[in-house]
Amino acid sequence: MAAIQALREFINERLTAAAGEIFTAFEQTIVQYQEELDRQNRLLEITFNPPKKFHGTELQQDHDWKEDQLFEQETNCYLEQGEPEPPQIKEEQEEPGLLQFKENHEEPEPPQIKEEQEEPGQSYNQRRQSDEGSSESRLLPAPPPSMNYASPSSSASSSAISCQSPAVDWMDTYQVPWRQFPEELIQTLQREKRPTRHMRREMVRIVASDMMQRSSSVSKRNSTEIAKRMVAKYPKSLQDNIEGDVIGSGYDSLVKQLQNRIENMKRSTTPRIRKRRCQADDSDTGDVAPEKRAAIQDTYGCIKWDVKFLPFGETLESQQEKQEKLRQMSQQTNANQEVVKQLMRETFYTQRKQVNQGKNIKDLLEGWPSWFSDLGMDVHFKELTGLALKETFLQNVDKKGKQLLNFFSTVCARKSKKFLQAAMKVKMLRGAELSGCSEDVKEMVLLLMAYFDESEENMLANVEDSCLAGQVQIDKLPLSPTIVVCGQSCFKATRFMLSVDRVIVQENIPSFVSSLCLMFGSYYSFNIHYPSGLASTLEFLQRCFFSINPEKGTKVEKSSSSCLHMNPRVLTLIQDLSEHEWWDI
User: Fold this and answer.
1) At what angle do helices 2-48 and 124-139 cross, to 10 degrees?
2) Distance of alpha carbon 12 from alpha carbon 22, whole angstroms
3) Of 324, 211, 255, 250, which Cα lies nearest the Cα of 90?
4) Distance of alpha carbon 376 from alpha carbon 337, whole angstroms
5) What are the pLDDT digits (tens) for 286-295?
6) Model's pTM, two decimal places?
7) How far apart are CA 455 and CA 200, in angstroms?
8) Residue 452 in this model has a pLDDT that exceeds 90
9) 3-state SS, one letter per residue, for 385-421
10) Which one, of 188, 260, 275, lies nearest residue 220 by Cα?
């Protein structure tokens, strides 16, 4: 018992000593922050008193002052994210304009003293402890020196910070990718010279891209912190100043350029291909399954749209190693196909994560070249939907293709003169000498588009038979997955290409059937919605030849009119085919 009592006394003594040290360090930190705030106030008075007269009206000055106040409120309430801005491509601005202040206004604190300066080795938990006493100096305009820092708003600010989601943690260890900068830019910064417009834009692109790789939901607060670090390292090269006078916080223009670039990277590049809106990691929907947050068009027909866990025994490092091995094998002419299949299945988790996070097609093509082959697309499609892409299609063509062509040539040709003319044109292009499954598929697809009165240009684009991938006029292609026909018609062509988002992802496809399966698989693999100009043809192929028949939902892009779970025109054709002995084969 005496030993236990002695142990208790020893523990109490050590705890008391530790608590005293903590409170002493806390008081010293508060004093340092107060001194820093006083120093910043003196600098501001020297900088802006007397204020320089710039060209502009007092109305513009007042507007700029209110914008600073609005930014402070946004920083204080960063957890309460609002609706995203309209999808307008914002100009990534160059050099800052003139910021003006009214002489008779009280100067608001610049953003650089709204957040406490982090020490290099300071951990997140240590910052949270100090936040209890200094949160007001970080999130609100600086109070006068006489103000007591233990204000009621401190507890509210502290609780807001304590509720930060883990998505903000990446900022704790984030390093600006200086090494990725071009050598010319590095030399300019080190020599304390102003970078050119081109160099500054390139710098913004590199940093924004690196930030998006670390987090898919970069906030304005994150952009502000990164801009502050960059300007602090190279103030003479990056700071906003006019004739030596620092304008605003000194990094406002860099924040705006970063934010505009990030928003442009997040937004969809086209209304035709509408992808899932990325949810902010720090939103209050963390307990909602990704499938429920996604657009219904993205998850439509999928059984493993979002994979929650890595395969057993796998790590992120092992996934990267296997991805690199796949890249190397894609360059080999005699690569083992079974090994490629196995690696594609084992890395399905990483593939889905990158697509669902909005990675663009160019990056996916560079990272997963095997994915855009017949084999790779079939493996991914089967994991995603549970169906073998090409095998399912060919089985259904063998069962239903002849009957569909017979229905078109007998029933539809008698009912519609316009369709009869289209059917005769297709027959002339095909000719009597061409036969076989591939030719039947070409005729079937062309007649389906004629039946639904949908333009062939939404699916097919013709180029010369000797045309290479680099010679294709990309800007004239649709943004949706498109088959590039190397020849005057798909019947005469012996080679095809595939374009997705105006990127040639496969330049040497030997058959039309393979190109059609790759095109269709791209809609599901990359979260692309059916364009309205091709919706009926694609849905009919989906239901009758690829055997994807969800009871609810649609893959068609959103429009002003309501979308039904099943296209009425597709339903009518299926009913007519049933009456035409569709199943009597």
Assistant:
1) 40
2) 15
3) 255
4) 10
5) 444 555 556 6
6) 0.52
7) 44
8) yes
9) HCCCHHHHHHHHHHHHHHHHHHHHHHHHHHHCHHHHH
10) 260
Mean pLDDT, all residues of the chain: 76
C-alpha–C-alpha distance, residues 441 and 24, integer Å: 80
pLDDT digits (tens, 9 = 90+) for 277-326: 444 444 333 444 555 556 677 888 899 998 988 988 899 999 999 999 99
Please name which of 441, 435, 430, 341 lies closest in space to residue 395, comparing C-alpha atoms.
Answer: 441
Sign of the Cα torsion 351, 356, 361, 367 reads: negative
Which tokens sit at 584? 């009597």
Can you tell me whether residue 526 is helix, strand or coil? coil
In a domain, 384, yes or no: no
| Tokens found for residue 325 | 């091995």
In a domain, 19, yes or no: no
Paired with 506 in beta bridges are 498
Query: What's the mean pLDDT in 565-573?
Result: 80
The residue range of the domain holding 498 is 389-579
In a domain, 561, yes or no: yes
How many separate domains does the chain show?
1
Residues facing residue 503 across a β-bridge: 500
What is the spatial distance between Cα 511 and Cα 495, in angstroms, rounded to a whole number? 7
Please report whether residue 507 resides in a domain.
yes
